[in-house]
């Protein structure tokens, strides 16, 4: 068997990140549907959660190439 298991780890990190982004925006849509007037506050929170989740995916990509 040849290859590197770092890329498998990155694949798992990318799947986790995709699930996290899906859950964040599902909660955002649910919150806006229940309380439309709180859209501005929920938008900021959703974008912050999206940025943090994607930062973890990028960190996983960097570590996959460094190690």
UniProtKB/TrEMBL annotation:
<keyword id="KW-0472">Membrane</keyword>
<dbReference type="InterPro" id="IPR035921">
    <property type="entry name" value="F/V-ATP_Csub_sf"/>
</dbReference>
<keyword id="KW-1133">Transmembrane helix</keyword>
<comment type="similarity">
    <text>Belongs to the ATPase C chain family.</text>
</comment>
<dbReference type="GO" id="GO:0046933">
    <property type="term" value="F:proton-transporting ATP synthase activity, rotational mechanism"/>
</dbReference>
<dbReference type="Pfam" id="PF00137">
    <property type="entry name" value="ATP-synt_C"/>
</dbReference>
<keyword id="KW-0138">CF(0)</keyword>
<keyword id="KW-0813">Transport</keyword>
<comment type="function">
    <text>F(1)F(0) ATP synthase produces ATP from ADP in the presence of a proton or sodium gradient. F-type ATPases consist of two structural domains, F(1) containing the extramembraneous catalytic core and F(0) containing the membrane proton channel, linked together by a central stalk and a peripheral stalk. During catalysis, ATP synthesis in the catalytic domain of F(1) is coupled via a rotary mechanism of the central stalk subunits to proton translocation.</text>
</comment>
<feature type="site" description="Reversibly protonated during proton transport">
    <location>
        <position position="54"/>
    </location>
</feature>
<keyword id="KW-0446">Lipid-binding</keyword>
<dbReference type="InterPro" id="IPR038662">
    <property type="entry name" value="ATP_synth_F0_csu_sf"/>
</dbReference>
<dbReference type="GO" id="GO:0045259">
    <property type="term" value="C:proton-transporting ATP synthase complex"/>
</dbReference>
<dbReference type="InterPro" id="IPR002379">
    <property type="entry name" value="ATPase_proteolipid_c-like_dom"/>
</dbReference>
<protein>
    <recommendedName>
        <fullName>ATP synthase subunit c</fullName>
    </recommendedName>
</protein>
<keyword id="KW-0375">Hydrogen ion transport</keyword>
<keyword id="KW-0066">ATP synthesis</keyword>
<dbReference type="InterPro" id="IPR000454">
    <property type="entry name" value="ATP_synth_F0_csu"/>
</dbReference>
<comment type="function">
    <text>Key component of the F(0) channel; it plays a direct role in translocation across the membrane. A homomeric c-ring of between 10-14 subunits forms the central stalk rotor element with the F(1) delta and epsilon subunits.</text>
</comment>
<feature type="domain" description="V-ATPase proteolipid subunit C-like">
    <location>
        <begin position="10"/>
        <end position="67"/>
    </location>
</feature>
<dbReference type="InterPro" id="IPR020537">
    <property type="entry name" value="ATP_synth_F0_csu_DDCD_BS"/>
</dbReference>
<dbReference type="GO" id="GO:0033177">
    <property type="term" value="C:proton-transporting two-sector ATPase complex, proton-transporting domain"/>
</dbReference>
<keyword id="KW-0406">Ion transport</keyword>
<dbReference type="GO" id="GO:0005886">
    <property type="term" value="C:plasma membrane"/>
</dbReference>
<feature type="transmembrane region" description="Helical">
    <location>
        <begin position="12"/>
        <end position="33"/>
    </location>
</feature>
<feature type="transmembrane region" description="Helical">
    <location>
        <begin position="45"/>
        <end position="66"/>
    </location>
</feature>
<keyword id="KW-0812">Transmembrane</keyword>
<keyword id="KW-1003">Cell membrane</keyword>
<dbReference type="GO" id="GO:0008289">
    <property type="term" value="F:lipid binding"/>
</dbReference>
